[in-house]
Amino acid sequence: MTVGRTGYFTHRECWKHEMGPGHPECPARLDAIEDRLLVTGVADALERIQAPEASLADIELAHDRRHVDALRGMSERLAEELLAGGPAHAQVDPDTSINTHTWGAALRAAGAALAATDAVMAGDLENAFCCVRPPGHHATRDKAMGFCFFNNVAIAARYALKRHGLRRVAVVDFDVHHGNGTEDILSGDDRVLMVGIFQHPFYPYSGDRDPAPNMLNVPVAAYTRGMDIRELIEMLWIPRLEAFKPEMIFVSAGFDGHRDDDMGQLGLTEQDYTWITQRVKDVARRHAKGRIVSCLEGGYMMDALARSVEAHVRVLADL
């Protein structure tokens, strides 16, 4: 690998997890992204790397062992029932279910974030984008919810602190939904600063009350436009990030705040995602040797998602 290049971590197992016909968090999301990066030539500038499975010991840096065991047990039972003619899915909550491939996909999604962290810390890559699913930022220490099973970004943040000995890491979350799981796991840890902006009131109806000092939550009303979100980021996020001086930045890259995505009602465009990514990259280059690991979260309107990821990755790769 060449120093300064952007890594692109993924695995075909991430396509095999699905939650039933018509579910918005579907394998076609990854197809849309890959097709867009190929047709625009952006893929040629990326170092494509197969995501390994995360070890359970590393997942347990952020999750309770009982949660991990319960998810594995549910997966094993589902496989046995399917062989006996049972259902193809098992429900975790009203909008989240597993199939027999979910366990493997979740291990790969977390493993992508960890392998990206290792490669960036080693200096093999300047930064990385993890094109994976299932997403992670709603998964709390002990609960799967909101399409999420393991919290990829929170696991990677804890891994960077524990395994690589970093003293300060930042988490940036611009998904339309509050990253309640990431907050649950990292709240009160003064080695971590988490900054987030999200539509409120909106699922999961959290993030607006008495956050810990290391949490900077910026709830915004439905139909807030991109320029207003940029202004809030410039006024609130950037001074906190600059003062914190993170040694590495992890991004929960959700693109469901796009104005064309009917999952939410924010007014962001690809140009806004370009701007946000550039501001985060500026902070990373000043304080963190450029070290960024970004993980896909939401984004459910295929064309808008693909264009937004392209915009995000172009900035990471200096294209």
Beta-strand percentage? Answer: 15-25%
Mean pLDDT metric: 97
Run of helices and strands? EHHEHHEEHEHEHEEHEHEH
| Protein structure class | alpha/beta
Overall shape:
globular
Main beta sheet: 8 strands, parallel
Number of strands: 10
The N- to C-terminal Cα distance equals 18 Å
Count of helical stretches:
10
Main sheet: which strands, in order across?
2-1-5-10-9-6-7-8
Helix content range: 40-55%
Low-confidence parts, pLDDT < 50 over ≥5 residues?
A: none
Oligomer: single chain
How large, in whole angstroms, is the Cα Rg? Answer: 18 Å
Structural features:
8-stranded parallel β-sheet, 10 helices, 41% helix, alpha/beta, 319 residues, two-stranded antiparallel ribbon
Please, could you describe this protein's structure?
By secondary structure, this protein is an alpha/beta fold. It has helices at 13-16, 28-39, 56-59, 65-83, 102-121, 152-163, 180-186, 226-244, 270-287, 302-316, and strands spanning 6-10, 46-50, 90-93, 96-98, 127-130, 169-173, 192-199, 215-220, 248-253, 292-296. The strands form 2 sheets. Strands 2-1-5-10-9-6-7-8 form an 8-stranded parallel beta sheet, sandwiched between helices. A two-stranded antiparallel sheet has the order 3-4. Helix 5 packs across helix 6 (152-163). The longest helix has 20 residues, at 102-121. It starts with 5 loop residues before the first strand and ends with a helix. The relative contact order is 0.15.
